[in-house]
Amino acid sequence: MPKVPDFGRYQMLRTLSEDEFPLNDPDRRVIMVGDIHGMYRPLTRLLTKLDYDPNSDVLVHTGDFIVKGLHHHSMATLDFMALHNVTGVRGNHDQEVLEWRGWIDWINSSNEGTEWLKRMERNWKHIHNSKKSYDLDQFLNYQRHSASGSDKRWWKLIPAGWKFLSDPYRIARDMTKEHYEYLVSLPLALYIPSAHTFVVHAGILPSDPRYPYYDRKRQPLAHVPGLSRGASPNSVCTGSKDRLGCMKRVREAQDLAILSSIPQNKHPWVLLNMRGVKRGKVFRKYKGTYWAKSWNKEMRLCAGYEEEASLEGDGDEVEDERSKRRPLPCYPSSIVYGHSAARGFSPKRWSVGLDAGCVYGRKLTAIVLGGDMGVVNENDDEWTIENGDGDDVDDESDDEDDDEADETEDEEDEEVDSNKRRSKKHKEGDTIRFGVNHQAKIATVKCP
To answer: DSSP 3-state assignment of 256?
Structure first.
């Protein structure tokens, strides 16, 4: 067997140009859609409803566009995305498929490995067709523990936590080279400089939760890139012949520092799985504070570079009541994400959650930007240092994991009902604010 390859094939970031994300072109639109999970028919209905034209419109997905739905519908969705080279990010389930494909190719590099895979698949197909109540977990447990000496070798090569012959495995097995190359091309995050916006599957932290958000030594939003310590934020680009261009570059550098300077955001697992943050730690469960609440809270504290947002002290002092409202020398960035079916469609001032739970019989939701949407006056929105924290509820359920919560209706009902109360004012055709001076229209279809 050759050396164990890199199954993950991570691409951290892709930056989109104005042409790749056309917000100001009246003849082009950006359509951003939430988690599809192989629900191919709702996707086609949504795109038909929007008169989607792949020649002019830009379609963007938030990841997890395959797995959980019917197998052949996941394959059809993957085929559509690869054929049109749709812009998007990886979701945690897409990553599973990609890793399984790398593993399958590795095992198939040995003739013995190929024969073992074929035999296991034949055995499972025979058992599954003859004993409907015999589930995959029972089959895998029996095969693993009854394996002969030579077969044990192959079972040991399955990474811990991976479920052999599962839906992600079967999609990985059946997808073409073009499908695989498309998955590999998807980054963990997109950055759109012209809109100061990130797109990610699960989330991005605005600051390192282990330290105060205003800590100038550690937090990218607490200091201006390239500005010497002790200098006032309103001195940014002073003396520059192209101050506007200089300010643009500084702001983009600060945006990108959110990804490059916060340790947790450098880990693929965080961008693919994060939901809760508690006591400085990141969780896949809805544990502690929902990450998007922190995002909105800190973006609302951005006071810009022109303001006297001086941060006295070295950042090591203990946060007290006065410092909880300490402004930051930054401009707010927006983020669009998925991975949160239990919360549903969740548009906030500086974040938009697009996972509306289509695979659980709810809705597939998209926002439409550009085209005839136009812009709004930046002065109509006093975005600096607002009283709200950008969210209504602090999720503290320690019991809900992503798939377990989504698949267990009793655990989910209370969360879903509270989400409906929070979001009832947003409906089909409504517009929401997007970034500083753009707006987006909501589009939905019922599932399945």
So the answer is: helix
